Amino acid sequence: MSMTIHTGTIAHVRGDPFGAEEALEIIEQGALAIDRSGRIGLLGERNAVFEAFPNSEIIDHGNAWLIPGLIDGHLHFPQFYATAGPGNGLLDWLENTVYPAEASFADELFARAAAERFVRHLLACGTTTAMVFGSQFYDANLALFDAAARSGIRLITGMTLMDRNAPPILLRTAEQSLDPVEKLIGLCRTTPRLYYAITPRFALSCSPALLEMCGALLKCHPETYLQTHINETRTETAAVRAAFPRSRHYLDVYDGFGLITERTMLAHSIHTTDAELDRMAEAACAVCHCPTSNAYLGSGLFPLQKHLTRGIRVAMGTDVGAGTQFSVWRELSQAYKVQQLRDCRLDACHLLYLATLGGAKALGLEHEAGSFETGKSADFFVLDYEQDSYLAARLGRCENAMDQLFCLLHLADERHVGATYVHGRLAAPRNRSLP
Ligand code: GUN
Ligand code: ZN
Q: In which pathway does it act (predicted)?
C-alpha cells in the first residue's frame, strides 16, 4: 500500500499521565505514514516506516517537530474582534466590550469575512479541533459552518442562546430559538467534522424556560453536546445564587434542567465547591481551563488538581475574546504558571496531554483525535524552530528531547507553526504572518 510519509521529530501522548499511564512518546528520527483516506497508518522510526511502505510520497520536515493537532475546548466566534477590550471584571466586560461586538454579527457579510479569518487563525495556531460558542444570529452560524467545512477543521459549535440581561438584539425567547437550532443540528448531521453543541450562554443570561428548552433538545438529539460557563468569578456566582434561590449551587441550576451529562463542557470552574465537584465527577461532565482569560478578567486560579483527583476530564481553551490570543500552545505555558501558584507542578507530558489527548477525551473524541494512534484522523502540526536562532540555540543546550519539548512549550508559539494538516491534508501553510 502506498502512503504519504511525513518525517521529523514526533511527539505525542498516548495515555493519561495524571492517571500514571505510560504516556509520552518522542521519536527523534521519526516518521508518520498516512493512508489515502487521511488516517494514521503507522508511526515509528524513519527507516522502519520507509521499509514498511516503499514507493510512498515522502514529505521531509527536517528537524521540525510533528505534534497532534491542538484542541481548543472553549472560545467564542463572535468575539473575534472583542479581544483586549476594557472591562472591570466579567459582568462589566460582557456589557461594555462583548455584547456590542457580538451584535455586529447581525451583518451577514461581516460575519462571513470574520468566519473565514477565524478558522484560518485557528489552523495557523495548530488547532485542528475547537469547541466554539457561535453567534446569536443564524446566518452568522451558517457562515461559520461553511468556513469550517471548507477548511476541514473539526468544529463543535452552536448558536449562543440568551433571553435576558443583554441588549435586545442579542436576545431570543426559547420559542424563537427552537427552529434555528434544530435546523443547525440537522446541518451538522450531514457535514463531516462538524458537531452541534447546545449553547446556553450562562445562568445569568438564560431564563428557566430557555434552560428547559436546552434540556429538551439535548434529550431529543443525543448526538449533540452542551457547552456553557460556570463559576468564573465570585461576583457572577453570587448573582447566580440570587437569581436561582432554589438551586443548591451554580451547577444545580444547570443540573435541574438535565444539562449536566458526559457530553457537557463547562468553561472555567474556578470557584466550584466540593459538592459541585463531586456532582461533576458523578455526572462525568468535562471542564475547560482557560488560564489567559482567567488572568485577563481577574477571575482567579483554576483548581486543576481538585478536578483531576476526582477524575473530571479537563480540556484547555483560549476563550477568545477574554483570552487575548488564539494559541492553545501558549495557553499551556500560562497553565503551567497558574498551577505553580497552586502548588501543582506540571511537566511537559502533562501539558501536551491537556492540549491533545486530554482535550480529545474531554470531548469524547479520543477514538478520532489527540494522538498518533493507528486509525485516527491525521490531524497534526509542524513546529519548526530552526529559523529562530535563539530557540535553536536554547534547544541545543538541552540534555534530551523531553527537556527540548518543555522549552518548546514555553518558548514556541504560533510563529513557529510550519504547517497544519487536517485529516492528512495541508490546511494551513507556513505561518509568516497570521491571516
Ligand atoms: N460568561 C458568560 N459569557 C461569557 C463570555 O462570553 N466569556 C467569558 N469568559 N465568560 C462568560
Ligand atoms: Zn467563554
A: Purine metabolism; guanine degradation; xanthine from guanine: step 1/1
